[in-house]
Amino acid sequence: MHKIIIALFLFYTANSFADSSSIEKNLMNNNKLQELILRIDKKVQGKPGFWQLNYEGIGVYIITDEKADRMRIISAVSDADKISKTKMIRIMQANFDSALDARYSIAKGKVWSAYIHPLSSLSDKEFFSGLAQTITLVKSFGKSYSSGALIYKGGDSNDLNRKSYSDILRKGLRI
């Protein structure tokens, strides 16, 4: 009986190692991320771990830390001191209901659109969705304040934001 239990233990342990090694092959890292970034901008600047690209006139930074397993996509929206109290309240409302995975944030005197995700578990689609949401938040600032992925309320900007979001996904996921 002990031999059967040991055999089953060894079988399941070996399979779990095989499963984990195949999972590790699929983990996102800087090299895989660079391939995805190049689908969006062939003229991307920087190096693995810090890329700067331009999408339709919007500057975007993609920053990773493989050791900390973090990735962030950021794009400047405005100088923070130029934002009225009313707009500050509006961006906080957007963070609650229409910004979705990307968020408005403030750092170093600027308002940013930011998407943050663990690097290793990031899928291609999640990356392109995060990039699209980050860019769309910049574009929709002062209008719908939406990431474009999902808008809970109707309005004139819905179709424009959804188109921009969809265009980035389509371009990035095209093989």
Descriptive overview:
There is one protein chain. The chain has 175 residues and is of the alpha+beta class. Helices cover 46% and strands 23% of the residues. The protein has a single domain, classed as 2-Layer Sandwich (Yope Regulator, Chain: A), CATH 3.30.1460. The chain has helices at 2-25, 30-40, 85-97, 124-140, 158-173; strands spanning 45-47, 50-55, 58-65, 70-79, 103-107, 110-118. Helix 2 (30-40) packs across helix 5 (158-173) and helix 4 (124-140) packs antiparallel against helix 5. The model is unreliable at 5-14, 16-23 and 154-158 (pLDDT under 50).
Shape: globular
Total helical elements = 5
Measured on Cα atoms, how large is the radius of gyration?
20 Å
SS-based class: alpha+beta
What is the β-strand count?
Answer: 6
Key features of this structure:
175 residues; alpha+beta; Yope Regulator, Chain: A; 6-stranded antiparallel sheet; 5 helices; 46% helix; 23% strand; globular
What is the structure about, briefly put?
The protein is an alpha+beta fold and 175 residues long.
Helix-strand layout with pairing:
Elements: H1 2-25, H2 30-40, E1 45-47, E2 50-55, E3 58-65, E4 70-79, H3 85-97, E5 103-107, E6 110-118, H4 124-140, H5 158-173
Antiparallel strand pairs: 1-2, 2-3, 3-4, 4-6, 5-6
